[in-house]
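assembly run, all chains below
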Amino acid sequence: MTRYVMVMDQRSCIGCQSCSVACRTWNDLPMDIIYNPVVSEGVKGEWPNVHVNYTPLICMHCEKEPCTRCCPTGASKKDKDGTVWVDHKKCMGCKACVQACPYGARDSSEMAPRFERYAQKCTFCRDRREMTPGAKPYCVDTCHQKARIFGDLDDPESDVAKIIGSVQTFRLMEDYGTEPQIYYIPALGGQR
Amino acid sequence: MNKHYWTWPIVIDLFLGGLGGGILAIAMAYEFLYPGLGPAFAMPVLIAVASLGLACFFLVFELGQPKVFLRVFVKATAIIKWGAVLLSLALIAGFVYFLSCLPWDIFAFLVPLQKPALIVAGISGLLVMLYTGIFLASLKPHAFWNSPALPVLFAVSALLTGAAVAAATLGMWPVTMSTLLQALNPGVDAGLVAQEAANTQVFFQGKLQTLCMALIAVEAFVLLLYVFLLRGSGNEVARTVAARWLTGKTAPAFWLGLVVCGLLLPLGLYYRFGEVAAAAVAATVLVLAGGCLLRFLVVYADDRRLVPGEKRFFDRLPHHDAAFLTAWDDKESPY
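ok done. output:
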């Protein structure tokens, strides 16, 4: 079976926000929504021993996703390949899923017309993958640092399976028990 | 990002849902404790029905796409679905009960349904009361909500507001206490019945006011325990919100608004001046305002644990009303 995951290589990410801009362009996002911000706590340490860590955020496409379970309309769905997405025609905009997501990965635009607001989120570029089988999410294709790696975790020959099987990775806020499917290679301490 | 996704319509919705559910639960309890007294709660039940109707309106009004609101009933795993079912059930059963109490022949066919309707309305009202708290408590990312004590706090508050409204409106049109006693004791002199009705009215209003006082004490205990325990909890987000309530930005609303005006003042009014009509009305208004303020404070305590750096990122972004965001709305971009 296919299980799509993404690996974020914090060793390579330079916080250029190219992925954010690419995502905004592909998904034609309103100004008040960002699916994949690249956040940082800023410069740490003292000169000359300084470093900056960047954490690219995105929907975690959790294995035990709380967002689809709390959706009363059935608009929030999960594909067999693990992609979590919203059928916006069925979404009534109650924002229960937005509140249920521990990662703040869902949003509803306040700039949309008052009665046309629905939950929006990253879908691993589901439309793009449907149009061109084998295509990767736009943020992955755009990342010139190759800090985003996308693939099928159940395929032992995939890059993601090899990386997750061999390099130290971590997932964000695992204590919520949602089993997020975004893996991070830590900037400091991750073997290259 | 930590913006408030749920705002005042949800506050009103939770408050009115709790109020309506509380009144229906109390009406059912009194019918069981004092068989035959139920119809005296016709006016409180009408208020409950109106509250639940308004709650439904605000629930739909808050939606981003109200045109698909009927899909709320689609998925069984969603708590909102069960809330909507219970709200509808309480609304319909409460309305049937009210109609059955009307002294008009056109609704005489509903009289046999009176007691079943009150039981259905009372039980679903009880569950609606709990639902308002369970709904928020089920959302794990919000540490201040995610506590099993929140449904208890909301249920006690809902019962309190319900009891206060019931105490103020018991025995009003369409079933006054004298109408009720006359129906229960046919053949008894009307003068005697009127005198007895006045005594009965005072007796039951006193009972309900005593219940209000007990509920105020319980709510104050649960509320303070809730906030102080979270203030000392190991969860940083919950601790921050509790500190904001106790000593921070929302402390005046919490201490002065909720604790003093919403709980202590009505307690004093019920205790000292319960038999004075104006004081009883003032106490009811204060209890209702306190109930609404409690929901307001809780709904806006929606802080979520952030990923390190997330706050810094979003703080640096322009706010939604920044001039350049709306500069070319409906116009061609000048750039």
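Residues 8-305 of chain B form a domain with the Formate dehydrogenase/DMSO reductase fold fold (CATH 1.20.1630.10).

The interface with chain A takes residues 1-2, 5-6, 62-69, 71-75, 77-81, 84, 138-142, 302, 304-310, 312-314, 320, 325 of chain B (CB under 8 Å).

not gonna interpret more than that til we talk
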